[in-house]
Design brief:
By secondary structure, this protein is an alpha+beta fold. It has eight helices and 13 strands. The strands form two sheets. Strands 5-9-10-6-11-12-13 form a seven-stranded antiparallel beta sheet, with helices on one face. It has a six-stranded mixed beta sheet with strand order 1-4-3-2-7-8, covered by helices on one side.
């Protein structure tokens, strides 16, 4: 199997069409694979390149395969996971400009961010085993992989068949994998929502895996909540330096 550019992929595909070759394509998310005689000839990405950081692609592919095998093993051991459905019906992110505007320049604030959030919640829900969780939780090299393995569950897959006189598409039902991804994501949303409730929704900003607050007492409340939930998190301190900017981790950013 050869990974090629999108342009080169189309050249090889056009050659099959010119030669009236029977071929098929597998579309899985932004990944396309061209098959001739039921063998993969080449693959390509149709959209953005996947961000893997320092992790080599072959190690990511191996990790992904091990993850999927372990996921289905966990489900077979715990049949109740087949029917688990977590819902969340509120907003998942927001910047509160009113609270920011009322904050005097020079005021400190804190961002409490869940470490490897998807990975932690997948383990929390029982989708990955304890040994597998512990093996990778502190491996920064797999930072992106520990998130992508869940988001890849939501990728839609189709097989496109082409013969000289006909063309058809078979779609794969990925609703089960999609529900697993939705459950992990919605559990994350719910964790942050419960943290927001504890401080009467007085946070400055929140998103899927973190919350930013300016009241030291609120910081203590949320730290206790995360600790009580057995969650691993980081606390980063910031300071408002102008009406539109703040500094955090030695970097100046806009609110």
């Amino acid at each position: 199997m050869k990974d090629v550019s999108f342009e080169r992929y189309n050249q090889i595909l056009n050659l099959q069409q010119v030669n009236a070759t029977n071929y098929s394509e597998i579309h899985k998310g932004s990944r396309r694979s061209l098959l001739v005689n039921n063998r993969i000839v080449c693959t390509t990405m149709t959209g953005y390149e996947i961000e893997l950081g320092t992790l080599p692609r072959d190690k990511f592919v191996s990790f992904l395969a091990t993850f999927k095998k372990g996921l289905y093993s966990q489900i077979n051991k715990n049949p109740e996971l087949k029917f688990k459905e977590i819902r969340f019906d509120f907003s998942s992110r927001e910047k509160k400009h009113g609270i920011w505007n009322d904050l005097p320049i020079g005021t400190d604030f804190w961002n409490l961010d869940l470490s490897s959030a998807y990975w932690q919640v997948g383990y929390r829900l029982g989708y990955i085993s304890k040994p597998f969780f512990k093996k990778y939780i502190e491996q920064d090299e797999y930072k992106h992989a520990k998130r992508l393995c869940w988001t890849f569950l939501a990728r839609h897959t189709e097989r496109h068949y082409s013969l000289p006189d006909t063309y058809w598409i078979i779609g794969c039902d990925n609703s089960f994998d999609q529900r697993i991804y939705d459950n992990v994501r919605n559990e994350l949303y719910s964790i942050i929502y419960e943290a927001r409730k504890l401080v009467d929704f007085a946070e400055m900003e929140y998103n899927i895996d973190g919350i930013t607050i300016s009241d030291p007492a609120h910081r203590e409340v949320i730290e206790k909540y995360f600790n009580d939930q057995g969650l691993i998190f980081k606390v980063k301190e910031g300071m408002k330096i102008s009406e539109k900017e703040y500094i955090m981790s030695s970097r100046i950013k806009k609110f």
